[in-house]
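Q: How would the structure tokens look for this protein?
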Amino acid sequence: MANSKQKISEFVVCINNTDYYASLELHKIYCVLSDKDAEKEGDIRLIDESGEDYLYPSTLFIPIQVPRPVENSLLQAS
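A: Here is the predicted structure in token form.
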């Protein structure tokens, strides 16, 4: 699990929630938490629908750029 000081590194959209229907919402924007070890393994760490952070295959997501007001709103919600 991530600690409260873990930094958000990027935003992604879920494009495939196969095998993770309860944990990931298709087409939802997620904040990715920095985790270099996970990235080396092809995974990303994010806070899912349970409210906890978990590792998921990065292939389930597409990185996106969001406008600053949207980024600020997403960061307030996390």
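Residues 43 and 57 are 4 Å apart (CA to CA).

The domain at 8-77 is CATH 2.30.30.40 (SH3 type barrels.).

Upvote if useful.
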